Every structure is written in structure tokens, then in C-alpha cells.
Amino acid sequence: xxxxxxxxxxxxxxxxxxxxxxxxxxxxxxxxxxxxxxxxxxxxxxxxxxxxxxxxxxxxxxxxxxxxxxxxxxxxxxxxxxxxxxxxxxxxxxxxxxxxxxxxxxxxxxxxxxxxxxxxxxxxxxxxxxxxxxxxxxxxxxxxxxxxxxxxxxxxxxxxxxxxxxxxxxxxxxxxxxxxxxxxxxxxxxxxxxxxxxxxxxxxxxxxxxxxxxxxxxxxxxxxxxxxxxxxxxxxxxxxxxxxxxxxxxxxxxxxxxxxxxxxxxxxxxxxxxxxxxxxxxxxxxxxxxxxxxxxxxxxxxxxxxxxxxxxxxxxxxxxxxxxxxxxxxxxxxxxxxxx
Length: 340
Hints:
Layout lengths: L1 H15 L5 H5 L4 H17 L5 E9 L6 E9 L8 E7 L12 H10 L2 E5 L9 H5 L6 H16 L3 E11 L1 H12 L6 E5 L5 H8 L1 H8 L12 H9 L13 E6 L7 H14 L4 E6 L23 H18 L5 H5 L2
Parallel strand pairs: 3-4, 3-5, 5-6, 6-7, 7-8
Antiparallel strand pairs: 1-2, 2-4
Helix pairs in contact: 6-7, 8-9
């Protein structure tokens, strides 16, 4: 069953990624199957909690004011006390995705360190029916959905220290992470963006304007493809590359040269901009040819949920945890907290 769920997840990764095929675009979404898959994923995330973390699924109103957002909350087995734990807003990949089972080993590791995680299933995610699916607002209200999660985890979970909120995301979730911290420069204390979508102009130019526009903007909220002053401004506002000057917090970005989804030529622009314009805030890492390319850091054994454990995967997570632990201090104890 686990292997089957992972296979479905991998199929959805191909189907739902910003570069999905034209034939896939024409396929009618199977909402009943998505709901069934969500139920299977829910069970896997709950079953994986035993001996590792506390888990619950909540819902909250997005600050955009028009939609209730489902979210997972994962907490350490032992809560140390009020305001003694940092929190991470955990932002899943794919414009048509959800919180996948392949995050299980990393959620376990995070909660073991002392992090409390909130993982919002932002609008457009699969498994929550057609209205939620059709509410997709790529780079728009979905960012509000994710940023709201930071306020929710502070207000609903007394163990969270409001001064130690981080955010992490992959691929499309990496793009949301970058937009979240540049639109809300002081909301978070640190951020990690892995293989993030960076420049929508290049993405459309390289992967097909009409196909990409249909994938990311089926409701035509942008007003069409780039080419007019109005549409250009929309694409620019939703492209993290053009927001770098707004960065005010520590940021780690990891990319790969063999990425076939977010091509290195797209992410290299972000890396170069950060290195030249935000060298004291941004840390970047370029991997050469890791197994899996775009998904190299998230590949797991579907039978055990253990990481694939390649040297690049190990190195990536070592860097991510070192960066987050330095900036969010998950080992902070009661004495340190009382001295604040």
C-alpha cells in the first residue's frame, strides 16, 4: 500500500508540476480519486506519528478572507512549556499537490529537534474538492494562505515562540516561501527555499507560454501571457527574482544543475542575485548532478519512509538543519527562555 501511494505521488509530481504535459492538461481532474488519495495520505501521516510526533489536522481562515485552509500540525512528543519551541511553516511542492508521505522522515527529524510544524494545504491543493482546486491563485492568494499559517500556529499553540518562526518550501513551495518573506519582510526569522521556481518570464518562454499559462493560471487571473504592461507587472510581482531587494532575514537556497523541472538556468539567476546583492543574509548551495535532480533531497524508501541517503541528500539536509538550528535555536530550554 505504501509503495502504491508513493507511485501515485510520483505520478502526481509529474502531472502537477509547472511543466506538466499538454495531454495531462486536457485530462479532466478525477476529484473522487484525489479525495481517496488524500485519505490514504492522511492515514500514512497519522500512522507514522507513533513514537515520533503528535499530529492533528486543523482548518483556519486565510487572511485573504475567502477560504478555509486545511493544515497539518506536528509537535514533539514532549512539549517543554510556553514559548519554548520554534515553529516551521512547511510548504509542499507542486501547484496541484499536497503534503506528501515522502516528508515523513524529515518531519520526524524536525519534531525530534524541538520544532513545531504547521503545513498548510494552500488553495489549489489536491484532495479537497473541486471548489478548493479551482481557487488556485499562483503567487497570489496562496501566499496569503501560507503566511496566515504563521499567525495560526502562534495563536493556537502556546508552546510556540513567536520570535522564532521559520518557513521552508520546495519547488513551487519554494517560490511561495520566497514571496512570503519578501512580501512580509519581518514575519519570519529565517527561510529555506529548495529548487524554487524563480522567474515566471523565463519559465513560460522555455516551457511554452500557452501551456504554462493554462497550468498556473486556468482562471486567467493574470490577464493572459506576458506581453502587455499590465500582464508584465503581474508576472514580475509573482517572480521571486524581482523581489530580492526586499529580503531582510537569513535565507538558505539550494539548487541543482541537473534539475529538469526548475532548470538551473532559471535558479542560477536567483543564486547570482543573492550572492551579489544580499551576501550577508543569503546562503546558497549548487549541487552538480545529484540522483533525482529536482527531487534529490526528498527521495525516500516507500516501504520504510527512510531517506534514500545519497551523499548529496545527506549534505543538503545537514546544511538545512544547521542553518535552521543556528537561526531558530530549537534546543532553547526554559532557563534561556526565562532570560529573554
